[in-house]
Amino acid sequence: MTDTAIATTTAPAELDAAAAAARRAFAVTLASTAAERASWLRAAADALDAARDELVALADEETHLGAPRLTGEVARTTAQLRLFADAVLEGSYLEATIDHPDPAAIPPRPDLRRMLRPLGPVGVFGASNFPFAFSVAGGDTASALAAGCPVIVKGHPAHARLSRRTAEIVAAALVAAGAPEGVFGHVEGHETGIALVQHPEIRAVGFTGSLHGGRALFDLAQQRPDPIPFYGELSAVNPVLITAAALEARADELAAGLAGSFTLGAGQFCTNPGVVFVPAGSGFAEQVGAAVAATSAGPVPMLTDGIAAAFADGIARLAGHADVEVIAGDPAQQPGSGAPVVLRTTTAAVLADPGTLFHECFGPSTLVVEYADVADALAAIRAVGGSLTATVHAQPGEDVAPIVEVLAEVAGRVLFAGWPTGVAVSWAQQHGGPWPSTTTIHTSVGVTAMRRFLRPIAFQDAPDAALPPELRDENVLGIPRRVNGVLVLPGQPEPVA
Amino acid sequence: MTDTAIATTTAPAELDAAAAAARRAFAVTLASTAAERASWLRAAADALDAARDELVALADEETHLGAPRLTGEVARTTAQLRLFADAVLEGSYLEATIDHPDPAAIPPRPDLRRMLRPLGPVGVFGASNFPFAFSVAGGDTASALAAGCPVIVKGHPAHARLSRRTAEIVAAALVAAGAPEGVFGHVEGHETGIALVQHPEIRAVGFTGSLHGGRALFDLAQQRPDPIPFYGELSAVNPVLITAAALEARADELAAGLAGSFTLGAGQFCTNPGVVFVPAGSGFAEQVGAAVAATSAGPVPMLTDGIAAAFADGIARLAGHADVEVIAGDPAQQPGSGAPVVLRTTTAAVLADPGTLFHECFGPSTLVVEYADVADALAAIRAVGGSLTATVHAQPGEDVAPIVEVLAEVAGRVLFAGWPTGVAVSWAQQHGGPWPSTTTIHTSVGVTAMRRFLRPIAFQDAPDAALPPELRDENVLGIPRRVNGVLVLPGQPEPVA
After folding, report:
1. Which InterPro entries did the record assign (chains A, B) (predicted)?
2. What is the CATH number of the domain that holds A300?
């Protein structure tokens, strides 16, 4: 079913060579202009768009996600590369800040100028479930390159051939656009991934994957002699709360929406709505089951045999729980595939055993949790732990403030309509949340993802000519800057010394 | 000599009570307005200024740093609290970002609104060497409170009575200004510090101290079931490079400047210039020795007996090295005190044994390293590892670009004049650098220190009334916001949907 057999392992000497090339490339990317980096990112996007049909066909062979979804994912991936190009040119991300000297201050204040600077070569782990958008040329790679950091991707074995081919295209496009050799590397193999996180030349890591694997790599990154940031997006159950009024007003629409969301892509999304809280006795779980039956064609091949086996195990564990009913679907899953399952329990049951009932079940299942009153549901949502998203479905005019307070506490994105699958790439997007959904206080999607690969640097009493162009007296690059505490837009006069 | 004998250990139940109070307070600080938090910070500053004479006397008894230095440090500390009040009101730190929906996009883009949100209760470790500015009400505390996070300080035993008294004053002032009970707590004891880092209610830690102690606490923070950010400022040797031209033009001034900087406060600064690169055969080390002799009154009491003993050990190790000459001062230090020592070696020696010769020696010593050419010096500076600062002294017209390139690589702040001791508190300040100088890519000084205690949150398709005021359609708070990718200042029209 899966293509892991064709995955290879990069020899340690090859990893060293890629890391050394990335370090050499960093000297160039560090000194590159915003215009240069923007052109590199756009060249990579153009090359991927040009190779779209070839890549989608390869991806479908390896992932079974289907051409329409994969075609859309390529478009999302290239739009993301172009958005980072725009953001690099806009320049706010540099946080350019100038404080003129103040000889009257006690002690006298020197001239201080601060901006962000790229960290160095970055390791990126491709994800199984987004062969384009969270893989070779996905968000981690795009944001690191935008920041000025060379990237070494560790390809995911679930789409080894696609990773290799995408890497060839991206590397060639970057270098053809003028980026230095070594700015982009690609390696393979489990042991290689471990060596990548521990490699002395690697200054940060981006990872999207399981809690188990991510935690192990996070620990390695922290245990280095020189710990490095490990940006992991690990696990989420994405609670949804439906109020009684919403359910009364539009149960059919909600059931259909949930059915569509949790079965999308065989449920293999980190934003899959895994637990849905509804008023007790509403029959909503049965409606969801009926909606699934009306639209689903049965078992769908999953990304890997391992993911399918883990899903089957998770469903068996839930279905075998004394307080859980199977409402729709067969908990006995077929090897390699995932078939939708709807389960039901109560807030009392999840509060008694959150470890079992809130364990992320990566695949097409959802657990409908019936609540007696909203306070019970909120207590149970607090027990879920950190999630990427949390959703409330209410009616206009309902006081949702107490609900939003709890959802904002446990999640990184709070939705008031729709379903959490689907992560728009835009300036205001944020993809991360309290542990275990992510390992840090940063986002892996949206323009601010660049901040992960930058560190501040200040120059004190520097001659103008010794400063980076971003911090010279004259704002030659036309970027937003903060001068003597005042934020000034390009074209507006800045305070003078 | 020191007052560690009067330090106590907080009982575990008291720590739990402080943490529970901080958690309750967080519900209030999270919902507080910028104006409220600014008034709390200013009230704390006013109360410390009012108690200045009492606090300075207490601090001098415990730290021996002298009334002038300590009086200045109080002023710096209260100015810092007021700067954060200004920054909270200005509002840029929230990164408020609004993307209006785009139904024409494929897939349709929802309405997305993003800002930063406080993490929760924060643990802060007071430093030995800054009893005000990096302790109870120092930068970590000020930035956490500004962000909306309650704080529990673990007082440093080197100034236990001062910590306790400062904490009383700060806690009373905060609550009198309307902050919730529990917004500020104070605990004591080594084991209590460990328990603080591991406490389930604590969401981040700020620490200033030794590499050894900081690494141990960093490891504990990462090994939690739910890892939390540990912002440690640990260790730095702060290299200085003097060009031949600069030395020729102003050797006396440079020798006097260095002598003043490395002996300031008995050399107990994290920004102490520990290694100074000068052209070989220049006799600069002897000049520094003479400058010290001309100004120093001999041994000075150090902060603690432990610090004095570690300094004596470090000096003995350096002085005993085959390639190191003692130029001035007696390497046999008196117990409890520190007397200035000037040592000399070569770039060849430090490159052969960087582990010994670049080990931070916390106290009044500096190692003059003679270089044959600048390239040798730069190679040696690369071997120093991460530092808080790096300094170049050159003459106008010299091409310093190759030097700045290396200094910017190893340090968080690059100086072109003056000496690295002294950290101005301003918008553009940055205090941090590559490992081991700090544990993360954030700063502990300057306005952006707040970012450490905030995480992003996004709201999708939220009704206007359900949004925080910062993100509503009308910019009622008058803060800078980015709308549809365009940064807009208060009072300017924002793009409409």
Report:
1. Ald_DH/histidinol_DH, Ald_DH_C, Ald_DH_N, Aldehyde_DH_dom, Aldehyde_DH_Superfamily, ALDH_KGSADH
2. 3.40.309.10
